[in-house]
Every structure is written in structure tokens, then in C-alpha cells.
Design brief:
alpha/beta, 8-stranded mixed barrel, 7-stranded mixed sheet, 14 helices, 28% helix
């Protein structure tokens, strides 16, 4: 038996080729295992990636993803403020939006008042306020003595202290800060079922029926800012042509009031140099990115003197408000300011939708033009006047700053009639009452200082007007949708057996004829 022994002195340095041949089987197996591992890893990666993509782009999430979505819903949007991000839903859980038709009960009024002037101005508020149908408050800078059991006026609230805010305007008054916050203070009362907040002054008259009709055009669940600029070009240039003037009224939807209440105090600190309340409110609403929605029926009425030219050429739009009622001459001749406003609001309540709406009709045989402003005046021209000329406002007034040039006004104006023979005869509302579902108004001739001159100098042209003393106007109600697509009203000329001239006014039929719609 032959045995193999290991001798250290035998071939101590074998051939390298021989060593490689000896290790090759083991090395080959190791390399194969590495390749297999890499292939498996790559396959696993591809499979997991494909699965992830299928989840992301799939129309219906798998069960685990759906559970995740139920646990953590995505935010509706983000609000960026001071470089920090806060996330909140765009729906207020406490506010239930309804598809029901807008009503007066959905509106909350914030009336800016002054304790010093309240004794006089409360009489203006009393003319249009409906205590059983309306919600709101008069906001004062301090308490006032209230008459007992006077439920015909809105309750009084004292505004919050504003002394912590800076006010650096040298010509204005810090009360602008207080008034600018009325909407936010109204919101913080947390009254139920509110869609709109309306800010107005205590010397403003509001047609609440038309206000609701106008606001019903807009979605109160969105952020909406409704109003109108001033009639004064200088005022609009100084403040903004895109700013609603609060005297004419400012309507703010619930979501905008909510957002405003959250940022306003901080916002006011950025505008200490502004003059009043409307520009501060506008500045903060502008920071929220909400533009002004213009409605021509809101009237700031930044005028002085005789408002006839403005009232007799009211735009073809629902009359909503008029401001500065004590700063102009009495609206109806022969009455004082308050007496005129009582007749004014009486006509407004009896025919709210058609109040101050214009109509034009002609007596071609006698070459006369009748221009009616319902509830206010009938103008009878001793010549044929084209509608385009009657659209312009006769400048019987001056601007609030005293300027009387036509370029001072941001509306179409014309010079006051100077020729005695071309001036219209004016018949102002004297009395109005209901007649069925229509209104019957009596308009009486106003005594003018140049009547004698007209009689002597204009006899051939105005002989048919010499004995004209009264005109009765029968005004038919408008349809509920007139305000959506308004059109100037039409009228018919009628002669009664008793010699009284009667005009019948109502909506025009469709078409180019402009004939009167037959109401039955």
C-alpha cells in the first residue's frame, strides 16, 4: 500500500496556471450567484415600480389607498399669509347654503351712525326701515339715549374701540377706521342664515325690494363685492374708480365678510394714511383679490343743489339707494326736505321695481314730448326730443366739491336748458295711490319764475301747454325678471272725458316698435 506524504520541501512554488485551474469551479459558482441576485433585485424593482404606477394612474384606487383617503382628505385650498401656510376648507361648516330664492331676511344691515346727528337722521332711517322684515343695527361711536318702545328703528350697537389703530391722514377723521370695521363686527355677531351684509350711512334711503332683486343675480356662496363709484370724477380719481362708496351702500357676500373679518385688523395697520372708511374697506378687499361688481342703482349722490337732473335721468336699472338726502334741495317743490322724502319713499314703496324708471312718448300732432320719471316728475317739451338727448343728465347741480363743469362728473351730462321756449314744463308728483295692481299718480305743474316770459315770448310754440296743469300717470307693475335684462319703459297718451291728460306706462313689447305691453 502506497501512502502519500506531504513534504514541505517539495515544489514550494507551484505554477500559477495550476492554481487557477484548481480554484475555477468555486469562483465560477460565486460569480453565478452574484448575477442571479442582481437579476432578482432588478426584477423586484421593476415589479414594485409597475405596481406603484398602476395605483397612481388608476381611475379607481385600491382598497388601502381608499382607506388612506378617508382618513386624511386633501385640503380644499391653501391660504398664504406672511410666508406661512395655513390650510382650511372653503366651506363654512356653520353656514348652510340654500337654493331658496333670496329674501330680505337673508340680508343683515350695518348702518353707520353718529350719536351727534342721530336725533335728526333717525327720521331718514325710519322712512325705509321695515322692523318686522329686516335685520341689522345702527353702529354708533358711543351710547345714545333711545326713545322707549320705538320699534320702528333698528337697534343701536356701540362700535369696538379703535384707539389701537394708527391714523395719520391730516385731513380726515379717525371715525373712518370705526366705520370700515362695521361689516366685520356684523359678521362676528354670528347671526343665523345670512347671505349678504349691507353697509350704508344714516342719511341714505334704500329701496330694499330692488336691493334684494339686484343681489339675487349673484351667487352669495362666492366672494362678491357690490356697489358703485361716485358721480364725481375728482372723488373717483382721488380714491379709486374701482371702489364702492359706502354712502350709496356696499353689499358684501357672507364668504367675503368672513375672509374680511379674519384679515381686516392686520390689514388696517398697513394703511394709516388713507382718508376714510370706504377706501380702507376697499384696500382690504383688494388684498383678498376681489374686484368691484358695479350696480348703477347704488347712488353715492356726491352733489349739491338741485338733484332734478340726476333723478329725472335715472339709468335703466333698478333704483337701489340715494345718499346725502339732506345736502340737496327738497326733491319736490313746495315741501321741506323731510316732507319731500316722505312722498319720495311713499312712491318708492308703492311701485318699488319701476320707481324712477323713465318712459318717453310723443304727441306728434302738437309736436310735444313727454318724458316720465315714475314717482318723481313728468317733463313736457314743446318740441320733439330724441331719446339719446333725454338720456343725458341735465346739469342742475354742482359736485360735492363745488365744481360745476361737466367734466367733473363720471356720467353723461348736458348743460341746463337756458332758452325759455325750449325748456320743458315740469309737473311733479303730488299724490299717488294703488289702483288694482297698478299705481295712479297725480303730477301737478310746478310754478316757475319764467312762466310769464314763456307765455309772452313763446306763444306760437307753447300755446298747447298754457292750460296744462295736471297729468295722471297709470303705472303698471314690471315682471319679476325685468331687472335681469332691463329696458326703458313705454307709454301711451290718453285723453280723459274730463279733460285731464293721462299717460299709461309699462313694459314695452318685444321688438323694434316699442309699443306698450297689453296688461290684462
Amino acid at each position: 500500500m502506497t501512502t502519500m506524504s506531504t513534504n514541505p520541501n517539495t515544489n514550494p512554488n507551484p505554477n500559477p496556471r495550476d492554481q487557477t485551474n484548481l480554484r475555477s469551479p468555486k469562483s465560477r459558482r460565486w460569480r453565478q450567484s452574484q448575477v442571479a441576485t442582481a437579476v432578482i433585485a432588478i426584477a423586484a424593482l421593476l415589479i414594485s415600480t409597475a405596481a406603484w404606477l398602476s395605483l397612481v394612474f388608476s381611475g379607481s384606487p385600491t382598497l388601502p389607498v381608499a382607506r388612506l383617503q378617508n382618513k386624511a382628505p386633501a385640503p380644499a385650498f391653501t391660504q398664504y399669509r406672511n410666508d406661512s401656510v395655513s390650510v382650511f376648507n372653503d366651506e363654512d361648516e356653520s353656514q348652510e347654503w340654500s337654493d331658496e330664492e333670496l329674501s330680505l331676511d337673508d340680508v343683515v344691515f350695518g348702518i353707520a351712525g353718529s350719536s351727534r346727528l342721530w336725533k335728526q337722521r333717525k327720521e331718514y332711517v325710519r322712512l325705509w326701515w321695515l322692523p318686522d322684515d329686516m335685520r341689522g343695527h345702527v353702529w354708533m361711536e358711543e351710547k345714545v339715549r333711545e326713545e322707549q318702545n320705538d320699534e320702528s328703528l333698528p337697534p343701536i350697537m356701540v362700535s369696538e374701540d379703535i384707539s389701537r389703530f394708527r391714523y395719520t391722514n391730516p385731513t380726515g377723521h379717525p371715525s373712518g377706521l370705526r366705520i370700515s370695521r362695521i361689516i366685520s363686527e356684523c359678521f362676528r355677531l354670528r347671526l343665523p342664515k345670512v347671505r349678504w351684509f349691507v353697509l350704508a350711512d344714516d342719511d341714505t334711503i334704500i329701496n330694499v325690494v330692488n336691493l334684494v332683486a339686484v343681489l339675487s343675480k349673484y351667487d352669495a356662496s362666492e366672494m362678491v363685492y357690490v356697489g358703485s363709484p361716485s358721480e364725481s370724477h375728482s372723488a373717483n380719481t382721488y380714491f379709486s374708480h374701482s371702489m364702492a362708496f359706502g354712502g350709496g351702500g356696499i353689499a358684501i357676500s357672507y364668504p367675503l365678510a368672513k375672509a374680511l373679518s379674519e384679515i381686516q385688523d392686520e390689514c388696517l395697520e398697513r394703511y394709516p394714511k388713507l382718508y376714510g372708511s370706504d377706501d380702507r374697506l376697499h384696500a382690504c378687499i383688494t388684498e383678498l383679490g376681489v374686484p368691484l361688481t358695479r350696480e348703477p342703482g347704488f347712488h353715492q349722490c356726491d352733489i349739491r343743489g338741485n338733484a332734478h337732473g340726476l333723478l329725472s335721468s335715472h339709468p335703466i336699472a333698478p333704483f337701489v339707494s340715494i345718499h346725502h338726502v339732506e345736502a340737496v334741495d327738497p326733491i319736490y317743490p313746495g315741501l321741506n326736505s323731510l316732507g319731500s322724502l316722505k312722498l319720495f319713499t311713499q312712491a318708492m314703496r308703492l311701485q318699488p321695481s319701476s320707481f324712477l324708471q323713465r318712459s318717453i312718448c310723443y304727441d306728434r300732432r302738437h309736436h310735444l314730448t313727454f318724458s316720465v320719471s315714475l314717482g318723481y316728475v313728468v317733463q313736457v317739451f314743446p318740441q320733439i326730443m330724441l331719446p339719446r338727448d333725454l338720456e343725458r343728465s341735465e346739469q342742475t347741480y354742482s359736485a360735492w366739491n363745488g365744481i360745476s363743469k361737466g367734466s367733473e362728473f363720471d356720467l353723461d351730462t348736458k348743460d341746463a336748458y337756458r332758452s325759455v321756449c325750449k325748456k320743458p314744463v315740469l309737473l311733479f308728483l303730488k299724490d299717488i295711490r294703488l289702483q288694482g295692481n297698478a299705481t295712479l299718480g297725480s303730477y301737478m305743474r310746478s310754478r316757475a319764475k319764467d312762466d310769464f316770459k314763456r307765455t309772452v315770448l313763446c306763444f306760437p310754440r307753447s300755446r298747447h301747454l298754457r292750460h296744462l296743469r295736471e297729468i295722471q300717470v297709470l303705472g303698471h307693475p314690471l315682471t319679476k325678471k325685468w331687472h335681469l335684462v332691463p329696458r326703458r319703459l313705454c307709454c301711451k297718451l290718453n285723453q280723459n272725458s274730463d279733460g285731464v291728460l293721462r299717460l299709461t306706462v309699462g313694459q314695452c313689447a318685444k321688438g323694434a316698435s316699442g309699443s306698450f305691453t297689453d296688461y290684462k
